[in-house]
Amino acid sequence: MTSQKSVWTRRGVLAAGAGTLAAPWIARPAFAADPLKVAAIYTVPVEQQWVSRIHLAANAAQERGDIEYVYSENTSNSDYERVMREYSEAGHDLVIGEVFAVEQAARSVARDYPDTAYLMGSSFKPDEETPNFAVFDNYIQDASYLSGIIAGAMTKSNNIGMVGGFPIPEVNRLMHAFMAGAREVNPDIIFQVAFIGSWFDPPKAKETAFAQIDAGADVLYAERFGVSDAAKEKGLLAIGNVIDTQSDYPDTVVASALWHFEPTLDTAIAKVREGTFGADDYGIYSYMQHGGCSLAPLGTFEGKVPEPAMELVAEKQAAIMDGSLVVEVNDEEPKSS
Question: Rounded mean pLDDT of the chain?
Answer without folding.
Answer: 90
